[in-house]
Write a structure and sequence with these properties.
Length: about 550
């Protein structure tokens, strides 16, 4: 492992601490009795406190120093005075341990008393401090000049997502997003629990990936010697519980879909699904708008949320528009009574990329997604979907070509999906068989036939309405984040590209070739500015690691990256 100069120095400090008899990673409990927030909320001059956290800044003033400690709730100023900390002749704890062996980012425990500085700041006068954890890597701490300009901020998105633990330390605003995320889950649970609905758990590993049209992740169970699928939805299991006699069940489920990744999709995501017996989708629309109004208030203290250039208001009630009317409004095309071929031709005429594997439902979905979806900014229920789009949904009571389904759109994105659930086992079997035909045509997102679920329906399921909400997308709207990666602690990332384990001289050559590959050897050597000995050693190193090669054509020699 190649270490930077700072990492080497920190390891040397670690050794010196141990030589002084100080354990940099003590096992015993540290008796914290205050947080930075508690100190500020209940400040009392002379009050004794014990706090702990990371050392985030130090202003050395010789025999005294001011510093900042960061804990889980914020920062508090510390005042270190050499003669207070070291009452006797031995000043090692201040002069050596604090000033020379302590680094920014180290976890320390502080005993002290509260006082107000000359400029009126609340602070802790340190009487003793204890090492709790020595950090071996320097934090990428932002710096602010006298004009308030920030430098060296930790803003690179890939680094932030890959090293969320660092992001949370140096960018405190990031933590607020996840605090609000926790508030959202708690608010939703409270709303459901107060109505008497029960939280349950269903399998993540499933023999049939049912409940949605999506491409699953596949694994293998060695003992049973069968393929298993990671859950794409929990719908069919929750409905089994309604069959079993529960009036209302809900689950926050981790779902997995082996599909693309972008700013609004992660292969692993969190959904909430709730099913309530003896209800329909009209009841569920009112339930949903009241739920989201309540959640917005609990998370932000207001029903309004800023999302990009839009101010979204989650206050109920929400506008309701049928899918047929939405498509007609934004394309001029009426899908009513149209055949699959007519809809395909219409989609192509609109410039939408479609193919022969797409059935009627998917074609309509593509038209709506391309031409209509982005127009709905304020919360809007899109209702009454064509039957082909909703194989688990009950046929519309007034129109057999439609289903009793709605999706809630906000800022052009779907955040909720709900049905009057299909409880006719014969109709359900026919719908599944239609999905099987789509699969045979090449649609790899068509649903599987779940025979056990059909058997459950044959035992009878009462009239039921179900609702699914994408929790990650909802918290994006409530925290003004355009990217789903910002609201996931650990979003899925491409494998990390490890830095080249090569000498500094070899790195100079590689960097020159990255800027312009295939350079004349003589010119490259001149640009590198290395002595003949260092040049030869670096070129041998790169050739040995198969990173570069020299191409000879006649008298000309060029160097290229492999």
């Amino acid at each position: 492992m190649q270490l930077s100069e700072q990492e080497i120095i920190r390891r040397e400090k670690l050794t010196k601490l141990r030589e002084l008899g100080i354990n940099p990673y003590p096992a015993n409990l540290y008796p914290v009795n205050h947080t930075s927030k508690q100190i500020k909320d209940d400040f009392s001059e002379g009050k004794k406190v014990i706090i702990a956290g990371r050392l985030m800044s130090v202003r050395d003033q010789g025999k005294a120093s001011f510093a900042e400690l960061q804990d889980s709730e914020g920062r508090i100023q510390l005042y270190f005075n050499r003669d207070v900390i070291c009452e006797g002749e031995d000043k090692t704890l201040y002069n050596t341990v604090f000033k020379k062996l302590t680094d920014l980012g180290d976890f320390i425990g502080i005993e002290g008393e509260l006082f107000t500085t000359k400029v009126g700041a609340q602070a802790v006068r340190v009487t003793n401090f204890t090492f709790l954890s020595k950090t071996l890597r320097p934090l990428p701490l932002p710096k602010t000049d006298d004009q308030g300009h920030v430098f060296d901020a930790f803003t690179d998105a890939e680094l932030r997502y890959r090293m969320r633990y660092v992001d949370l330390v140096v960018n405190p605003q990031v933590k607020d997003v996840f605090v609000k995320r926790a508030k959202l889950f708690n608010a939703m649970r409270t709303f459901f629990n107060e109505k008497g609905y029960m939280e349950v758990e269903t399998p993540i590993l499933q023999s049939i990936p049912g409940g949605a049209a999506a491409r699953p992740f596949v694994t293998h169970h060695n003992s049973l010697n069968i393929p298993l699928y990671m859950r794409i939805a929990n719908e069919l299991y929750l409905k089994r519980l309604i069959v079993g006699g529960f009036d209302g069940v809900y689950e926050f489920s981790k779902n997995f879909r082996n599909e693309g990744m972008d700013r609004t999709h992660n292969p692993e995501f969190t959904a909430m699904e709730i099913y309530v017996a003896y209800k329909d989708y009209n009841w569920m629309m009112e339930f949903t708008e009241n739920l989201l109004e309540y959640c917005a208030l609990q998370v932000n203290g207001t029903t309004q949320a800023t999302f990009g250039e839009h101010t979204v208001d989650f206050k109920a009630p929400y506008t309701r528009v049928t899918m047929t009317d939405a498509i007609k409004q934004f394309t001029g095309f009426d899908i009513t009574g149209k055949s699959e071929d007519e809809i395909r031709a219409a989609a192509k005429s609109m410039g939408i990329d479609v193919d022969d594997t797409m059935g009627k439902g998917k074609l309509i979905d593509e038209i709506f997604g391309e031409k209509c979806e982005g127009n709905f900014i304020q919360p809007t229920f899109i209702t009454d979907y064509p039957k082909e789009m909703s194989p688990l949904c009950k046929e519309h009571r007034d129109n057999p070509d439609l289903t009793e389904r709605f999706e809630l759109m906000v800022c052009g994105k779907e955040i909720a999906n709900a049905y009057s659930e299909l409880n006719d086992p014969i109709d359900q079997r026919e719908r599944f068989e239609d999905q099987l035909k789509l699969s045979e045509k090449g649609d790899d997102e068509a649903m599987f036939i779940d025979q056990d679920f059909l058997r459950a329906l044959e035992y009878g399921m009462p009239p039921t309405s179900g609702l699914g909400i994408g929790m990650d997308r909802l918290i994006m709207f409530l925290t003004n984040n355009q990217s789903i990666q910002e609201v996931l602690f650990f979003p899925q990332m491409k494998p990390e590209v490890k830095p080249l384990a090569i000498s500094d001289e070899a790195k100079v050559i590689v960097d020159l070739l990255k800027a312009e590959n295939n350079q004349a050897l003589v010119q490259l050597k001149e640009k590198a500015g290395l002595s003949g000995k260092k040049w030869d050693a670096a070129m041998k190193e790169l050739a040995k690691q198969n990173l570069t090669k020299v191409v000879v054509k006649g008298d000309a020699k060029t160097v290229v990256l492999n």
